[in-house]
Design brief:
With 209 residues, this protein is α/β, with parallel strands linked by helices. The chain contains nine helices and ten strands. The N and C termini lie close together (10 Å).
């Protein structure tokens, strides 16, 4: 069993897109892949395309297996804030970790919410949840352009102690993006610029059926 925790340097960096594409790519390479979204918040108009629904489509699982139905919060805030705004019970990191059923075999992709220190429960953030789940590897999704070096450095530091692979998303191969990737590589970070390269990096580490 391998648990990959997919985090972002912040919101709107494409975590779900990367997680979905990674699930499909690894599945195509013979891995048994499942996906988990511990809690999700979303605009009501997004129902039908929520993170759990997209991840479930990629792995062939029901959306409520990806994210339990009682952890769907139909207001676009951090999940514990959304729960409070909707008048629903608060929940803890321990509660989320206990609810996440990770299969004994194969690869499970767990997608967080927001950046490393974004709250995902009343008493903790994505880093806390990754620790509670004993994630094997953190996949850090970052924008490729301006500001990414600072965002990556701060995010990797927050996930101190985890093996981390950085994917620079929305890569266009511009001069700035190439310089960012080179700088981060010289700083000691493992950096890839496509989902295929991410799968290559992870492939040898992952268990097959």
């Amino acid at each position: 069993m391998t648990a990959l925790f997919v985090a972002g340097t912040g919101t709107e960096v494409g975590k779900t897109w990367v997680a979905v594409q990674l699930a499909a790519t690894l599945g195509g390479r013979g891995h048994t892949v499942s996906a988990r979204k511990p809690a999700q918040s979303f605009a009501p108009d997004d129902l039908g395309t929520t993170d759990a629904e997209q991840l479930g489509a990629a792995t062939g699982e029901p959306p409520t297996a990806v994210c339990p139905a009682h952890r769907w919060y139909e207001t676009p805030m951090a999940p514990p804030m959304a729960a409070a705004a909707l008048g629903r019970p608060e929940f803890t990191i321990a509660t989320l970790a206990a609810e996440i059923v990770i299969p004994a075999d194969g690869v499970t992709i767990v997608e967080g919410a927001g950046g490393p220190r974004s709250p995902i429960a009343s008493d903790g953030d994505n880093v806390d949840l990754a620790r509670a789940l004993r994630a094997s590897i953190v996949v850090l999704v970052a924008d490729a352009g301006l500001g990414t070096i600072n965002a990556v450095e701060l995010s990797v530091a927050a996930f101190g102690g985890f093996e981390t692979v950085v994917i620079l998303n929305r890569w266009t191969d511009s001069d700035l993006e190439r310089r960012n990737a080179e700088w981060l590589g010289r700083a000691g970070h493992r950096v890839v610029t496509s989902v295929a390269a991410l799968a290559d990096t992870l492939d040898a580490r992952l268990s097959r059926p």
